[in-house]
Design goal:
Helix content is about 0%, strand content about 45%. The chain has no helices and eleven strands. It starts with a strand and ends with a strand.
């Protein structure tokens, strides 16, 4: 059984940085792609970034491109989302999720993800 646990959220000022972690257990990262999805209050879930099995492919939503970086540490079975130049509109609950269907790539459409973590709150405010 795959379990995903997010950590690293918190309160940060505009322009600041946070690094989110997604720790996986039950399956190694060789078996699925991982995505980060966020949900702001009153809004639908939005795919933010993804990384393929093996880490060779990464994708980003236009809203975070150039500011967020997704990486994977296979030895630790952990995926990270480095978030820089944070804006108030980045405020949301951030979830990591697993996509077992994508074999060589990844995608940020939300409906491809079937296993989800519990989420971590990110608040960007002065």
């Amino acid at each position: 059984q795959l379990q995903l646990v997010e950590s690293g959220g918190g309160l940060v000022q505009p322009g600041g940085s946070l690094r989110l972690s997604c720790g996986a257990s039950g399956y190694t990262l060789d078996y699925y792609a991982i995505g980060w999805v966020r949900q702001a209050p009153g809004k639908e879930r939005e795919g933010v970034s993804c990384i393929s099995r093996g880490g060779g492919v990464t994708k980003y939503a236009d809203s975070v491109k150039g500011r967020f970086t997704i990486t994977a540490d296979n030895a630790k079975n952990t995926v990270y989302l480095q978030m820089n130049s944070l804006k108030p509109e980045d405020t949301a609950v951030y979830y990591c999720a697993a996509d077992f269907a994508s074999v060589s790539g990844c995608g940020i459409t939300v409906d491809r993800y079937i296993h989800w973590g519990q989420g971590t709150q990110v608040t960007v405010s002065s």
